[in-house]
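Reviewer 2 asked us to include a model.

Predict the structure of this chain.
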Amino acid sequence: MPSPSAQRSFSFGLFELDVARGELRKQGRVIKLQDQPFQVLDVLVRRPGEVVTREELQQAVWPADTFVEFDQGLNTAIKKIRLALGDSAENPRFVETIPRKGYRFIAPIERIATDEIGPNRIRSPVLAALLVGIPAVAGAGVWALRPKHTDETAPVPLPFTSYPGAEVSPSFSPDGNYVTFAWRDEAQHASNFDIFVKPITGRGDPVRLTHGPAHNFSPVWSPDGRFIAFLRRLSPIRSAVFIARPIGGMEQKVAEKHAEATEHWAGPQLSWSPDSKWLILPDKDKVNSPSALYRLSMARARGNW
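Predicted model (structure tokens):
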């Protein structure tokens, strides 16, 4: 068992935090992370599953004789950590915010002893013991004990957006070149979701399709690529179905429906027919009655455009 001082590298998910070298790596590639966010991440990963208070982080990272705006500095450091890890404050996989207390690292951590790491580090003690005994093992036995490299064929999710706030309800364009989604932009202090369109490749800000204080959610691209249908919360008991052009501009309300209290988090609520002439959506006769599926013709609405 290596001493705590030797445990200077930590592995979590696709990432490795090498404290000795001051590097954050993803699958061997160095991810840029400034010194202060790196130190905050180091403190958090050393105490996985524990709440690290803001005061503890201040004592560990911000020297007492420095004159800095600590709250702003810590908030900025956490945002940069999440950006580097492709993490989200609303749906965290690594760093969880504990309101009015601090932060907690929630991903499984593997501690690595750097004094035992060579160019090809050995993570498994069992595998290490087998490799030590290789000269005494017959060739057939060595082959049988070789680990299977299943990770080489496993799909790896890649971050597509890393905007401040929550991004939900994605829908591909028919040609696969764009994605529409609902985003609550915390950088603009937004409390509602709006609908955006972003290209799969290329850079630049996403195109914003909706504006105003209302919640907009569940965007779905029509199969012919001409329209995006979505829902807008009108009141606690009513929502409306809208369609809009993917490039932005004019939008059109095509129907109203009863609203569920949590429907904007409940996954896709709309579905187009393959010919783009109909929408299927859940609705009900009364507020307290069971939901059923309804078919909505798009012929008149599309004819107006």
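DSSP finds six helices and 19 strands in the chain. Helices lie at 35-45, 54-61, 70-85, 125-132, 139-145, 299-303. We have added this to the supplementary material.
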